[in-house]
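BUG-315 | component: ligand-complex export | severity: low

The export step for N,N,N-trimethyl-histidine jobs runs without errors, but we want the raw record kept on the ticket for reference. Input record follows.
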Amino acid sequence: MTIPALLQLDLERALFEEDMVAGLSASPKATPPKWFYDAAGSALFAEITRLPEYYPTRTEMALLQDRAGEIAGAVGAERWVVEYGSGSAAKAVRLLKALDAPAGYLCVEIDPGAARATAAEVARAFPGLPVKGVAGDFTALEGELAAGVPPRLGFFPGSTIGNFAPDEAARLLADMRRHLGPGARLVLGADLIKDPATLEAAYDDAQGVTARFNLNLLARANRQLGADFDLDAFGHRAVWNAEAARIEMHLVSRRAQTVTFGSRAFAFAEGETIHTESSYKFDRARIEALAARGGWRVERFWTDADEAFSISLLG
Ligand code: AVJ
């Protein structure tokens, strides 16, 4: 079913409001990271990927370049490539270039602008290849998969898997296992555990781009929900939680304050935070355990020379 664009915007706004109300009512306050990615947030994320401190994007791109031939050899010919939200076409173009006679390309992006732009760029790079971009979260894909027949190759780059808590991540991989169908493979990009200083710098850059990305959540709530967040009254914090193996991003209330939107009011104590994102980091054993919970096996595992980032081939 196709939902008219205006209705879709209304629906998106309603879901955003629901998640913000639930997240700000919870204790401790926590909101889902998928709402970072409106047009402004997607542009800020693109800027993050070019920051000197943010190594994941360029490391994964180089790794893809170096290993594309091996990946292509392992997955075989005539695959439908199904990509889960990377925010840019660059990695898919690199993968598709290496693959033997890809059958088509489907991507799902939370930001409708990104879905359109990524699909358009892939279509431009591969004239004649069936290409489709879908706006929504990963669950929006289920109905679309009739478009491409097996064998499929899932492509989940960027360590977006790290945005999900372990149980959710296992469920997500199991969903992919199921809807990608028989004989599917999955190319999974995952950031690796390393020294905390490097990790924290990647999420708290000197230019303050990540801070703006984090604060954009509140700016978006002001724009889209009529909230009255004072952006100067919140600070950005990124901390490595070693026990949970994740970077956490928080927005810290600089003072006691009350924020309102609609008929609701949310009280903040001085120093209270909204936990806006977790970015889990991995090692080979953790990826193998997670893959197994999702019904996959790690067939190949590649890292760069510094072991900063990994690409796994799951089958
Ligand atoms: C897009 C989820 C992979 O966790 O590294 C970047 C998002 N957040 N800087 C990440 C992000 C802060 C990014 N992912």
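Assignee comment: Attached the raw record above. The longest helix spans residues 5-25.
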